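## Example pair
The file below holds two records. Each record gives the amino-acid sequence first, followed by its structure token line.
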Amino acid sequence: DNTARIWNATDATLIKTLRHEAWVYSCAFSFDDKLIVTACDDKTVRIWDTQSGQLKRTLAGHQDSVRSSCFSADGNRVISASDDRTARIWDAQ
């Protein structure tokens, strides 16, 4: 349904829905839980604010679906892997 959803793990209530233009293949929290990164079929990586659910950045450059993404340990970078056979390192700020 082209969304990533944030759920409360304690009581299973829906907190936020993050809308995309295409399928979402993966998502990950930053280590401080302030941001979420999503990997999408529309060839983009998106960074979202956890509290507000607002889109902070869209990272475009892959030539095919992005299957996976995650934050570096310090939260300053994102790595993504795509069906275009590339992995990219992005500035998360």
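Second record, same layout:
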Amino acid sequence: SLLDRRLVPNLIVYNTAITACERGSNWELALVYLSRVRSTNLLPGVISIGAAVQACKQCQEWKQALGLLTLLHTSSLSLNATTCSG
């Protein structure tokens, strides 16, 4: 049965959860989900990191947001208008 299967979230599921955290201004949970992405063998992309940046920005967690922007840079990912919008 479906209840017996262990379903593993993919990047789309995590991106959806992080985006929901952004919309709900829950920066801490957004960072938890982003951490889970990174602890699995998934690679967070601009959508994942950008939504977490926006969640931090909405809550004025600037240090966290800057750390995430650094992660974008070190991951060789490009910033986009959504990530940088203000």
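Notes on the second record: The mean pLDDT is 84. The chain is about 65% helix and 0% strand.
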